[in-house]
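1st attempt posting a full record on here, be nice pls
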Amino acid sequence: MKDINIGLLGAGTVGSGVIKILKDNAEIIKKRLGFNLVLKKIYSRSIRNEIKNDISSITASSYEELLGDDIDIVVELVGGCDFAKDFMFEAIEKKKSIVTANKALLAKYGFEIFSKAFENKVDIGYEAAVAGGIPIIKAIKESLSANNIKSIKAIVNGTCNYILTEMLEKQVPFEEALKDAQDKGFAEADPSFDIGGVDAAHKMAILSSIAFGDNVKDDSVYREGIKGVTLLDIKFADELGYKIKLLGITNLLDDKIDVRVHPTMVKKEDILAKTDGEYNAIKVLSDMADDTVYIGKGAGSLPTASAVVSDIMDIARNIRHNSHLRIPLMSFPFNYVKKRKMVNINDLSMDYYLRFSVADSAGVLSKISGVLGERNISIKSVIQLNKGKDWVPLIVMTHKAKERDIQDSLNIIHKMDIIKDKTLLVRVDDE
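the predicted structure (as tokens):
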């Protein structure tokens, strides 16, 4: 039986993992497929020293070699958007199926790429684009395909989860936890995409699209990062029965999509609150299966490469049995994919944690509660620290209130001379 030939673009962290799995697990892969996967060509601008000798005979001199007639599946692992997009379109035109881990590209141009692939009758595998080794794409597209998905709540950035966990467990400030994450390889030298919520927003755009049959772009996702969260907030959350997590949330509300990424206070007994360190967790609520939860390593060479190779195997089966596009690329056939309106976060209602930095003087609480009360915002609890300093933290937990009313109140309160610094707002998941 004819082998299936693979062309690999990019031999970095994930690419090296793919090479290792295809080599070390070749026997079990062949047994499960009934034929061989052959890594035929590799093109990469930089190749790690530890694998150079092993792949020297199949190293290509240009990316065009990956698009030759002898290549059946192309694996794109270079990241970024511009070159990767052009490469993918060229590969699709040459009738190559593609496996990618490029979340940024799919969050921005996924619909266009999938449409092009559909026209050319080739497959796109992208399990590795969301949550590394956790098979969440396949779960939504296949295992939960008989369900109406109601919502997804997810920890999909291991860097932020590691930082927030370290802050709580070791009682260290944000900057120290970030440095530790960088030293251990959980955070990049420039961590802005992670701690700013950009990475998680890309993943939530993809999950929203396949969960609801929509074309959700990355710039439609409301996002906030974790940089404003301090050790003080971590401690207060703990005392109040919560953990702070960078949560990705998406819901279908009155045929509009609510999708957002922001720090969230999650009850300690929730499985998401119990997911610590570099681990990811995704909780999917559907009408027939109720809550299903998926936990695992959301990044790293081998977990992510495992998802890549799984996609390669699926597509190889399609090629062998001439069954391309057996499963819709976006989970729904294109005639059922919509472009819904997005929910404005200002129209949502939830509980809030507010940390004010206030003057240590009489009447401060009454002034703040007065502004909140004028907008029908009810206070659930207050923690006021009097340390004999000029400025002290004041913690206010509210009952359910509309985001717009909270923001309007904060705009007024920030103009008062009793306030120093910007107030930290953390939304509370009390469901």
